[in-house]
Design goal:
The structure is a homodimer. By secondary structure, chain A is α/β, with parallel strands linked by helices. In chain A, 44% of the residues lie in helices and 18% in strands.
Chain lengths: 230, 230
């Protein structure tokens, strides 16, 4: 049973660092989202579409998490104020970003110069569900070629999400993916979740996602002002 | 540094149980393969195609690994001698099958009645790379919609594979996937790997994969007979 206790302690320590991270972000007026998905579901494509839509309205920073390589950072770096690459290879928790990695990155980010931080997690539907980072919202992308049974097989990550993005709508005609069944599975786990149907390839549905994100940033700013006034 | 030591011990203990598992499999003349991939890359579809091609030639057992649900076992159970579901939810290592889980399952499998054991791992390109199970061959499936950069981002699992299967060939016209670039990335990491291009939807390329598998089973049987004669 020692092993289980160790795992529990690791998760508790992570929660505590995540709470500190969120405090630092709030002090500097930075709204952070944690973007999680299977490998190849479209995390970087969603980020690129989000940048194209919001970079004139917001000052955006990015943390790119990957087991290895800086492929994604190279794709996004010219569209943002700042981009940081984290490679988890060799870390005790190599299958996910963890709060301590974000804590380190926050020291290198010009927090007063940005108001949105997009964190792209490692491609994985399991480990990232267990480690919060200090983000304000948790977003899961699921793409149509992966099949409509993913919420049943990976319930934890979907239960905990604030938003789920169904990506690769353009491939729906060519794959076995029942959108109604998928939505029902998610809503069964997580009735409050917001669901967006998009194609990061064609841009369909991106405007709705970006409106929601802007609204959440505004709600968060109002809430912080209220708390500060108390 | 204590934490790293614990991880190392867990992996060493796993290797030792995996070696015992392979001995048990060899004693009973069962050839085992460990099938790994991202969520939704086509592990169950490859298994269904393999069963359709080989069930008249071999007696096949299956271990289905998933974090939650028995969706995949329900899909395959009528085509095999025996199917066992392992759900990793709640286990200290919930992001992969580990050798101890297979050790337990081997007690429930009628090993003298089967000669091929297909092990479908949890959908994940990270954790399963670290835990061997006692399998004779390690197979990684990567599907075209995931993109051609997966070997660069998840090098460990591709470096260690005996075979890589490029699935969803039927979707290549609709996605950004450069087969030559993908093959070169894998061969750079793992020059000895065998690569198959298939579509589990249309059946294209499945015959080549099944021929290789039959040949590997035969090679293993010959080798075991030779070792036993020494």
């Amino acid at each position: 049973m020692t092993e289980i206790k160790i795992v529990k302690n690791v998760l508790e320590a992570n929660e505590s660092i995540a709470a500190q991270n969120q405090e630092i972000l709030d002090e500097h007026g930075v709204f952070a989202i944690n973007i999680m998905a299977s490998p190849g579901a479209g995390k970087t494509s969603l980020i690129l579409q989000t940048l194209a839509n919001l970079r004139n309205k917001l000052r955006i920073g990015i943390i790119e998490g990957d087991f290895a390589s800086r492929v994604d950072t190279d794709k996004v770096k010219s569209y943002v104020e700042v981009a940081i690459q984290i490679n988890t290879k060799g870390a005790p928790e190599s299958c996910s970003l963890i709060a301590a990695m974000i804590e380190n990155s926050l020291k290198d980010l010009p927090l007063d110069d940005i108001n949105l931080l997009l964190i792209e997690n490692v491609g994985n539907l399991l480990c990232p569900a267990e480690f919060t980072l200090g983000e304000h919202k948790r977003v899961v992308i699921s793409s149509s070629p992966e099949g409509d049974d993913k919420p049943i097989k990976y319930p934890l990550i979907f239960s905990d999400a604030d938003a789920v993005i169904i990506n690769k709508l353009d491939l729906v005609p060519y794959v076995d993916f029942n959108i109604t069944k998928f939505r029902q599975s998610i809503e069964g786990l997580n009735p409050a979740v917001k669901i967006f149907e998009v194609s990061c390839k064609t841009g369909a549905g991106i405007a709705g996602w970006c409106s929601w994100l802007l609204q959440e940033i505004e709600n968060n700013a109002i809430q912080r002002t209220k708390l500060a006034g108390k």
